[in-house]
Amino acid sequence: EFAFCSFAHAHAPRGVPLPLARDNRARIALYEYAEGTKVRTGAVTPALVRQALEFYRGLNEFRRDKAAERLPGASEACFSIDEHLRLVSARVRRLASLKDRSPAGRKAAAFTKKELAPLWASVSREILAAAAERGLDSGKELAPEERRISPSDFGFHNAILQPGGRLKFIDFEYAGWDDPAKTVSDFFCQPAIPVSMKHYPWFLKTVLRRMKNAKKHALRIPVLLPAYRVKWCCIMLNCFLPAGAKRRSFACGPEKLAAQKELQLEKAVKALSVVEAGLRNGNLFPR
């Protein structure tokens, strides 16, 4: 995280707090204080989306630098369509074997087996069919020059809105080299501060600017969006898995965990309904 923030500050300094010091042994780091507030749900403007794009493009203008070469792969980085699908399938399988016996846990298990898993099977088939239709090889990995530096988990939930209207992006523990399709999809699928799909066409157009094989990526990136919608449904249900339950219990207190689980299940059901509607209405992929 410190290494990525240092790279970002060197090449897109307006977009991140200044990294000051770190102690690897103690696993702590110090950054400048960034005054501001969270971006409010419903308050995402075109100007804020442009700032996010400016930050992303600023990082990637320097992707051929030696410092960029030293950055690791992003967490859960995938470089072929098949890899993306396998990653989501693994998440769905983990949820299908839930051991949570709480009332919410039983409901989550039923939801996964009766709705999430069957819908994902249909969606993944549609993705592969669409890829073949568009002349995309689902098993072929992106060439190194087609990969991009990504903040990962990119969205306004990981940003501070400063008094003057500038954004400072934070939380780079998952950052590194990644597939641009994942970066774009995460930006529009993360549920904390939703971004309207009305911004998708020009956001994608800007990401594609000066990208090698831009026409291929213009076809490929939208094909993966529904996979990330399903992935985010799975992420919303992490609190039903042992590690996720521990984190959530630590954050909100064990006495509030049951209510949090119910809330997360509601969110996942709502998010999956968007995917189901897209599949039913024939508009699964953004145009």
Describe the structure.
The strands form three sheets. A three-stranded antiparallel β-sheet has the order 3-5-6, with helices on one face. It has a two-stranded antiparallel sheet with strand order 1-2. A two-stranded antiparallel ribbon has the order 4-7. The protein has helices at residues 2-11, 46-60, 66-69, 81-96, 103-133, 180-189, 200-208, 214-236, 242-252, 257-281, and strands at residues 19-23, 28-31, 37-38, 148-150, 159-161, 167-169, 176-178. β5 (159-161) and β6 (167-169) form a beta hairpin. α4 packs parallel to α8 and α5 (103-133) runs antiparallel to α8 (214-236). The protein has a single domain, classed as Aminoglycoside 3'-phosphotransferase, Chain: A, domain 2. The chain has ten helices and seven strands. The longest helix is centred in the middle third of the chain and has 31 residues, at 103-133.
Main traits of this protein?
54% helix, 287 residues, two-stranded antiparallel sheet, three-stranded antiparallel sheet, Aminoglycoside 3'-phosphotransferase, Chain: A, domain 2
- Total number of beta strands: 7
What count of structural domains? 1
Low-confidence stretches: none
> What is the count of helical runs?
10
State the share of residues found in helices, binned by percent. 40-55%
* Percent of residues in beta strands: 5-15%
- Say which CATH homologous superfamily is assigned: Aminoglycoside phosphotransferase (APH), C-terminal lobe
**Strand-pairing-aware structural class:** mainly alpha
- State the CATH architecture: Alpha-Beta Complex
Overall 3D shape = globular
* Major β-sheet profile: 3 strands, antiparallel
Q: What does the average pLDDT come to?
A: 95
